[in-house]
Amino acid sequence: MNDQWPPRQLPSSQNPPRRRRSYSGYPDYTNPGSYTSDFGDANSGEQEQSRYTNARYDDRGYRVGDFEDGYDQYGQYSDRPSSENDTQVIPAITDDTPPPPRRDLPPPRPAASAPSTSGTPDASHVPAAANDDPFDDGDEFDDGDEQVARAVPQPVGSSARRDRGAARRRRQASNRRRSRGKWIGSLAAVMVLAVLGGLIFVGGKMFLGGESPSADYAGPGGSPVIIEVKPGDTAQQIALAMADKDVVASSNAFYRAALQNESISSVQPGFYRITSRIPAAQAVSELVAPRSRVGHVMIHPGRQLHDSQDVQTEAVKKGIYTLISEASCLGDSPDQCVSYDDLNAAGAGNLADLGVPDWAATEVANVPDRDRQLEGLIAAGSWDFDPTADATTILRRLVTSSAAVYEETGIRTAGDHVGMTPYEVLISASLVEREAKPSDYAKVARVIVNRLAIGQPLQFDSTVNYALDTTELATTDADRAEVTPWNTYASPGMPATPIASPSIDALRAAEAPEPGDWTYFVTIDEAGTTLFSNSYEEHLANTRHALQSGILSSGR
Predict the structure, then answer these.
(1) Per-residue pLDDT tens digits for 224-256
(2) Which of 57, 128, 374, 556 gives the lowest tally of CB atoms within 10 Å of its CB?
(3) Which residue stretches of 331-390 are H helix?
(4) Interior CA angle at 150 toward 96 and 6, to 5°?
(5) What is the 3-state secondary structure (H, E, C) of 486-547?
(6) pLDDT tens-digit series, residues 124-138
(7) Which of these, 19, 109, 98, lies nearest to 59 by C-alpha position?
(8) 210: left (phi over 0), alpha (psi -120 to 50) or beta
(9) Is the separation of the CB atoms in 500 and 428 below 8 Å?
(10) 43 vs 52: CA distance, rounded Å
(11) At what angle do helices 441-454 and 504-511 cross, to 10 degrees?
């Protein structure tokens, strides 16, 4: 219906005292001025259709406005006369407009009933007994909305009494349900608050380090302890570690002190020797001091397990075991270090205990010198270990960490296309590291592959030096003639183990050599210039250049 619903005037005789009722009906849009409601006996389901004129309804279907006979929309008497402004134009309703949604309303207020003037009470004006309204199911409403409706005739006699009894029982049951619901809701709220309070307490205690989150030691301090800062640790996590090791009285105190020290952002993952039971500010200062870091070792590419000596200068080049021993010291006394001898003995131990990877285990088990079985398995790089651990534990950490780094390059399968096992690839990489500069890594790797393919000895001076624990660019005829499992002048094929720890670049070159037919190379000057060739005659010419530069002169 597209027409608007015009307002109409309601005679005062048709406007008895109003009663507010809950309703489930809607305005009768097909009959202007009418309103259908589900008023009636709750048991019988009777409905009463009422017509209101001069009434205004809002967009929710609620009746609003004043009425001609002096009653306002709340059923209260008012001497204010109605006016033109008391009418309202209802918005046009179309055929496809859905009826307004049903809304529950607030409980009705007691209606003022006019006494009957005849001997027999008028059913339409019989006042309802207190709390016996058959339409009041005891429900309460929260939104405060009201609906004004005409008083509905009440049933009388025994039937009414039975109805009132049934209504009373329904109301009492509803009250019991509501009371029980309130009790359960209150109990649930108390439980939720208790749980939240517990979480707040436990979480606060966990992070803040105890019941006194701002507690702080006054000093002077106790015995030093080792704190590990793991990769990705935040200041809060470091604070918790400090509190757990009893360096500080509370994690919160350390965290507050850390915020005041800009150097905290420069702390690197690793192990730190910190005095216990000290003020938080002092703990932060010790943590950021370079001298506090322990168990940190830097292994440069080309370093071997044992110390070696330069033939010309007699300078000792520290081996990996010596570097680890020095990094393990917790004081000035040698007794506070893991010794070189302890590391060498542990390195000759059980392969499983040392963490030797499966792709190298078989070949490492056949190494002729057990003291050299871990050669090349500790990768070049920066490593951290717990200096309070024993020698085997330290080596296991370094070997397993190195294996993971090697495996990231694809070492398990990279050697398939050049006919090498993963361990042979590692050996080749160590030769490349000791024989060439980075720009020539891939070419030297190709020379190794080409010589092995035709059965030609590698004849690398670096393999002669390795067995002698010396460093020399040129070797003597006597040295080259000494047969060892590593001397590639005296023995065909690969050396028994890697001869050093290769860099990752050298490893990748060994995994993917540069294409070429080279079988010879020689370094001709101290700048590292290297010449490659495929003929022996050309190689001899290149060697003469090296001799003229003096680079091949022996120090002996």
Answers:
(1) 999 999 999 999 999 999 999 999 999 999 999
(2) 556
(3) 340-347, 351-354, 358-365
(4) 40
(5) CCCCCCCCCCCCCCCCCCHHHHHHHHCCCCCCCCEEEECCCCCCEEEECCHHHHHHHHHHHH
(6) 343 333 444 443 444
(7) 98
(8) left
(9) no
(10) 26
(11) 40
